[in-house]
Write a structure and sequence with these properties.
The complex is a heterodimer.
Chain A: H1 4-17, H2 23-32, H3 37-57, H4 63-86, E1 96-101, H5 109-120, E2 124-127, H6 134-144, E3 148-152, H7 159-171, E4 179-183, H8 189-194, E5 199-200, H9 204-216
Parallel strand pairs in A: 1-2, 1-3, 3-4, 4-5
Helix pairs in contact in A: 1-2, 1-3, 1-4, 2-4, 3-4, 4-5, 5-9, 6-7
Chain B: E1 6-7, H1 16-33, E2 35-37, H2 40-48, E3 52-54, E4 59-61, H3 64-73, E5 78-80, E6 89-91, E7 95-98, E8 106-108, E9 114-116, H4 119-130, E10 137-139, H5 153-160, E11 167-171, H6 176-190, H7 193-198, E12 202-208, E13 213-214, H8 216-227, E14 232-236, H9 248-269, E15 275-279, E16 283-284, E17 291-292, H10 296-311, E18 316-318, H11 329-345, E19 349-350, E20 356-357, E21 362-364, H12 365-383, H13 389-392, H14 394-400, H15 411-420, H16 432-437, H17 443-457, H18 465-492
Parallel strand pairs in B: 2-13, 7-19, 8-21, 10-11, 11-12, 12-14, 14-15, 15-18, 18-19
Antiparallel strand pairs in B: 1-7, 2-4, 3-4, 5-6, 8-9, 16-17, 20-21
Helix pairs in contact in B: 1-9, 3-9, 5-6, 5-18, 6-8, 6-18, 8-9, 9-10, 10-11, 11-12, 12-17
Classes of the chains: A alpha/beta, B alpha/beta.
Chain lengths: ~220, ~500
Amino acid sequence: MISTEEIKKQLYENILNGDFETTKDIAQSSLNADADPMEMINSILVPAIELVGEKFGRKEYFLPDLMRSANAMKNALEIFEIEITKKGIERKSAGKVIIGTVKGDIHEIGKSIVASLLTAKGFSVTDLGVDVESDIFIKKILEEKADILAMSALLPITMPYQAKVIEDLKIRGLRDNVKVIVGGSPVTQEHADRIGADGYADNAVEAVKLAEKLMKK
Amino acid sequence: MSIRGLKGGILKFLKEPDIDAIHFATLEVLGEVGIKMEYRPALEIFRDFGARVDFKNSIVKIDEYLLNKALSTAPSRFTLYGKNENFDVRVDPERVYTIGGSSALNVLDLDGNYRPALFDDLIKFTILLDRLQHLHIMHAIVIPSDIEEYGVDRMLFAGTFPYTSRNYYSQSQTGADGVLDQIKMAAVVQGSEEAVRKNPMFTEVVCMVSPLQHEKVNSEVLMESAKNNIPVYVEVDSMPGGTTPAPIAGTLVEQNANVLAGIILAQLVNPGTPCIYSIASGLMDMTTGGYSGGAPETNLLHCATAQVAHYYSLPFQGGTGIDAKIPDAQAGYERAMQVLSNALAGTNFIHLSFGMMEMMLSASYEQCVIDNEIMGAAFKMLEGIVVNDETLSVDLLRKVGPKSAHFLTFKETSEYVRKNYWVPEITDRNVWSSWKAMGGKSMQQAAGEIAKKIISENDKPYIPEEQTKEILEMAKAFHKKAIMNLKKASSSH
């Protein structure tokens, strides 16, 4: 029988190495060995993902490593949160984010990087994928009681759709319910200001900082 | 006399068996993984020609015979027409040409300001680029911020086509209607739409999405261009490690399947449509997630893709922007490595090779002039070395003999130098004191002075003013119509 200490070490290594394919099994086995899910999050997941972030900053790790570790973190959180909910405790997420690439645009990768990094930083993220219609964004914002809507556009001709979603939010009287952030290669701070977004970042790391800043407001 | 480019192809990173392996892997991907095509008429054509089409998931799977059928009608040689025959470009899979920058959102202007691009910049850049010797194909280098984005291609046409002598590299952002609008505008110069279809002075580009996806608008533009005999750059913009496999070999396979599927479609619609196998791929920087055109891996990829395109006897467009923000040492080294390697590899169109900075986000007037200089140096190397009795110069060596002497005063020397030596325009080869005495200018300053001079001395379009005006009025009306159609479509939705 493998000890709880051994499993903790395995999970820590798993997050650090980003082996997300096996994370759920390890997280589950820690619960089977009576580990406390809250403690696992605070003493294993958080320090592991923080070290991943540091390594990324030092250029020891790169985006693929960061995203794999973020996926591992997400998988572990899913297992632990089921247990935490069962116990009737509520774990506070850093914030709820709805993210997607706007209608007419099927560019996937930028917003996926942002989604991963937000997850790694403790946000709960709903990724609606690409070519997302305004109504779908709004429906999800209501369902999830989201704090932040993050929209990506990679084409100059799909950028105006970010404005349309913001307009639709206003029409429905929901604009004040949610912070809106925008990104994508052709998107600029100026565009964000013009369409009345709450923020813009020019890369994924900055996007996470922006989300954290907006949550403090 | 048309322009006849120098021949490239001396630089080869792939061995023949490597290219065979890439070809076979591509057949496997085309036949078993397939391409997603969102435009139903494209799927229908593939079905009619015997491809296996899954209409529910919009996936087409293409077998070898269909590829071979399409390749048998895709021309290896054709002409891209300029506004006079001196600027006709004779395309084949050996000759090397250049294409200017495209679609930058910001400019680094001649007062050193970094700011959003304006329509006026588009005209000024085009006027400048049109006077640079080594530019062969004109693109719209900026997307002006003072024009509504949707359907902006009509306005790009009006801001570029009238101001250039070169063949114009166009695009349609809205679909088939954009191609038809542009044919009408070109007809103002060419006399009739029929004349445009016969010898089009512009081309279209379609950009496929990696991995393995053709968006609706692009298929529509591709098919409409083919129907009208407008040559098409069938382009994929992969980001190795991001949207395609990280190894260059895997990216070559994805690009190949994606581009060939587009070329096949064009050939099925109208056999003989001139297609240029094109990429504007760039390595994904694994710290920012951004696109790197200046990375050495990107250069390797582009050179290798030239070999893959040439395997099918198709002309190839490679090359891309650089990552530097200002015309500095980074800009110089990135551009030089890129241009030289692509030229030597036989990239038939070195694309985005003038003025494009900051991962394709900005354009610099000064860098346009510097890039022309770098291009001149690269083309000089592309000329290679002529070895014959005359150049071996044994007779001359005999004449001078083994003694203290020099070759400067010989007629042979004078003739050879005048005919063959590259004369730099803004490269300085003086010693410090002379350089100082002449103002001690950096290359950026020297380039800026030339750019300013060209722009201040030239403000007329290449075609008559009335035609320029007529095209502008048409473009405004077409642009307005495109925006109205969009509004109609979204309100009926």
